[in-house]
Amino acid sequence: MNDMQQEPATLLGFDYGTRKIGVAVGQSLTGTATPLTTLRLVQNRPDWESIQRLIGEWQPEALVVGLPFQMDDTPAEMNRKALRFARQLEGRFHLPVHMADERLTSREAWSRLGGRAMQDLESIDAMAAKLILETWLSSQ
After folding, report:
1. Contacts of 9 (CB under 8 A, 6+ apart)
2. pTM of this prediction?
3. Which terminal residue of the chain, N or C, has fewer Cβ atoms less than 10 Å from its own Cβ?
4. Quick one: which of 79, 101, 80, 98 has its CA closest to 89?
């Protein structure tokens, strides 16, 4: 067993919101991620069926959830809800769940999407999930 080399891993990243959840897929080998989709909450709950389908399709080794902080390092209002979502993911799917600082990811997503953001608000959340996942991958 060689501790110096890790197997390439597929991960799913989530940008949890009160109405929508952005989802991205990434690879540990390349350290990059791709926006996948934006899921709407169903009766104020995550769309577990769609999340299960994505996990079945991509077979991730781990999941990454964005953890919101204010610029002064205090937890943002959504922090507690994102942590709860992460615990639910771990309990339902029995996969490791990692948290990543998601400060400014939505603003960066708007910036990267430019004019397209106005036409496709759904893509903002998926792009934010991509940035969250890449932030976590680059910190590993």
Report:
1. 27, 28, 29, 60, 61, 62
2. 0.84
3. N
4. 98
Q: What is the pLDDT of residues 23-44, one digit of tens each?
A: 999 999 999 999 999 999 999 9
Going by the DSSP 8-state scheme, the letter that residue 17 receives in this structure is: -
In angstroms, the CA 134 to CA 22 distance is 14
Q: What is the pLDDT of residues 84-106, one digit of tens each?
A: 999 999 999 999 999 998 876 66
**CATH 3.30.420.140 assigned to 10-138:** yes
Element of type H or E holding 70: none
- Which residue in the block uniquely carries the two structure tokens 């996942």? 133
Q: Domain ranges in the chain?
A: 10-138
Angle between helix 48-58 and helix 79-93 axes, rounded to 10 deg: 60
